Amino acid sequence: MISRIVLLCCAFAALCGLGVGQKANDVTVPVPHTSATSGKEMYLAYCATCHGKEGKGDGPVAGALKVPPPDLTTLSKRNNGKFPSAQVVNTITGPAGTPAHGPREMPVWGPVFMSMEHQHESGVRLRVANLADYIKSLQEK
Fold first, then answer.
1. Domain ranges of the chain
2. What is the CATH number of domain 34-137?
3. What kind and span of H or E run contains 93?
């Protein structure tokens, strides 16, 4: 289910970028493999489609979502000046017992990263830490 949501998001993003008038359900797009050491590369590959290249919630798919993606550049501001690292990590990974972000449309990346890292937990932790650090770097000053 999770991988289908991810594939649909990627397919929709690809179709928006190409301007093709085909339904997203008709296309299967593999999740691109990125370097676990580059938070920016992962962000641009997995998050920017919805959240925008600069994290402001204005990605090319944002307008098609029922719930607009949040502006990631204001996470610290909305949390009394402190970056909510644990919340960001939990949102990315979708810890056990957490439904797929409830009613939100964002895919849970933990299982996707686990698949990419061939079930090695340390690789997933590296990916999530670097992605969270990159999101932290996007915060408004």
1. 34-137
2. 1.10.760
3. helix 85-93
